[in-house]
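Q: Here's a chain of 293 amino acids. Please give me its 3D structure as C-alpha cells.
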Amino acid sequence: MKAYIFPGQGSQFPGMAKDLYTNFPLAKQIIDEADAILGFSLSAVMFEGTEEELKQTKVTQPAIYLHSILIAKLGKDFAPSMVAGHSLGEFSALVSAGGLSWQDGLRLVYQRALAMQKACEIEPSTMAAVLGLPDATIEEICKAYGPSVVAANFNCPGQVVISGSVEGIEAVGIQLKEAGAKRVLPLPVGGAFHSPFMEPARVELAAAIEATEIVKPICPIFQNVNAKPSQDPAEIKANLISQLTGAVRWTQSVEAMVAAGATEFIECGPGKVLQGLVRKIHAEAVVSSIELA
C-alpha cells in the first residue's frame, strides 16, 4: 500500500517550481491562477526570490503548498491508499486526496500563514529542536511549565521540537540538557507554532475552515493532532483547526500508517525531509520522491 506524504515549512528553496512552470502547461495554468487568487506574484518570489524572502511565513506556506499539489497532479500513477502531511502539508495532502479544491486550499493556507504571523507579533515566542531524548521525558519536563512550553513536533525518535515563550524555552532547554539531551537547538522561526501561543490564529482560521467546503477524500488522511485516519469531513475540519495549537504527531502518524498496511512512502513536494524522517521511524519502509509523468 502506498502512502503519499507532503512536507511543511522548511522545504522551500530558491527557484522552486520554476521547472514545472516551464515544462508543464498545467503547472503554468495553476501557478498563474494562484497569483491571481493571492493578488500578488507568489511565482516571482518562488522563481527569483532569495532564501530570506522565501522564509517569510506568508510566502513559505503558500509556496510549499503550491509546489506540493503540482507535484501530486503531475505525478505518475498517483494512486494513494492513504495520505498525510507535516503541519502545513496536511492541506496539500487533503487537496491531493480530493477532499478540498486546490483554490480553496490556497486561500486557507494563505490565511493560515497571515494569522500565524499576526499571532507571532502579539507576544515574543520561539521553538527549539531537542535531540537524543525519549518523547516521554521531554513531555514530562515541559509539563512543569504549563502552557508556556509544550512539545510541538514529534518528528522521529530522538527528534522533538518544543515551542513556547522565549524565557520558557531557555529554562526548559537547560533542564533537557541535564536530563541527557545531546543538543537543544534554537530554531530560526517567527514564533511558537503548534502551541497555545497560536490561539489567536486558531480562532481566525476556524471561521475560514468552517465556511469552506470539505468533502470525503478518496482515501484516509492521517492527521497531525491525533495520528488517526479520517475520511469524515466534519472530523477533518475539526482536526485542521486543532492543528494550529496542537502537536504535530509525525512519528505516531507514520507508525499508524505502517500498522494500516503502508509499505511505501512517497514524498510529494520540494525536498526530501520527510523521507529521512520516515527512515528513522520505520527502517524497513521503502521511501521515494514521486516521479513526474
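Q: Can you summarize the key feature?
A: The beta strands are 2-6, 82-85, 125-131, 149-156, 159-165, 183-186, 221-222, 229-230, 264-267, 286-289.
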